[in-house]
Amino acid sequence: MSTIDIYLILTFAINLGIGFIVALRNTQRKVNIAFLFQTICTCAWLFTIGKALSSTDTEVAAYWIRRSSVAAMLIPTAFQFLRKTISGNTLSLARFAREEGVWLLLLVAVSIIVFTPLYLTGTTIYLSTPSSVPEPVYGPGFFLYALFYLLLILRLLAKCVIDSRRLTGIARTELQYILLGW
Predict the structure, then answer these.
(1) DSSP code at position 59
(2) Distance CA 137, CA 59 (A)
(3) DSSP of 111-174, one letter per residue?
(4) Nearest by Cα to 77 from 52, 47, 108
């Protein structure tokens, strides 16, 4: 087991542990459940990136790179759900889906592109080096993915700044706390 595997396993376990501790402290509180959802999305990305990094076959590496790319897009989306839950704007996944419908549809569209050769044309693994980490060979769809991801992050940060100025009390403190951790 390599050093990076150990770091990924520790990060995965710590993330999941904190997520469940927060959720189990008060399972009736929507913010705690939203935090667990965000933690699970982060753990999904950690798991898929770990599988991609430990792959010794190019096809298997490509399989996990595609999944880690989709999981990465879920992190800011889950964070948006957490932000809205803290600010009191969204209390259910159904309402979140209605309010964020356009962004969720774009996420699905970009996810579909990720599973085509437009995004990833292949991977190379140089077995002659001690750290034979798969290297993705991206296609032109990668730029669309990167642009969409950047827009997700910028939109999330803008909404967080607006909310942190608007909110007061514990809601403001919670939002600032998760921003600090993110």
Answers:
(1) H
(2) 12
(3) HHHHTSTTTEEEEE--TTSSS---EEEE-THHHHHHHHHHHHHHHHHHHHHHHHHH--HHHHHH
(4) 108
CA distances from 120 to 66, 68, 141 (A): 8, 12, 8
Q: What distance in Å separates the CA atoms of residue 38 and residue 76, rounded to the nearest whole number? A: 8
Please answer whether residues 82 and 110 qualify as being in contact, where contact means their C-beta atoms are separated by less than 8 angstroms. no
Q: Write the CA distances from 102 to 29, 109, 159, 171, integer angstroms.
A: 27, 11, 16, 26
Tokens of 78: 């889950």
Q: In the structure encoding, which two tokens stand for residue 38, read together?
A: 């965000």
Q: What's the one-letter identity of residue 12?
A: F
**pLDDT per residue over 48-96, tens digit each?**
999 998 888 899 999 999 999 999 999 999 999 998 988 886 667 888 8
3-state secondary structure of 91: coil
pTM of the predicted protein model: 0.87
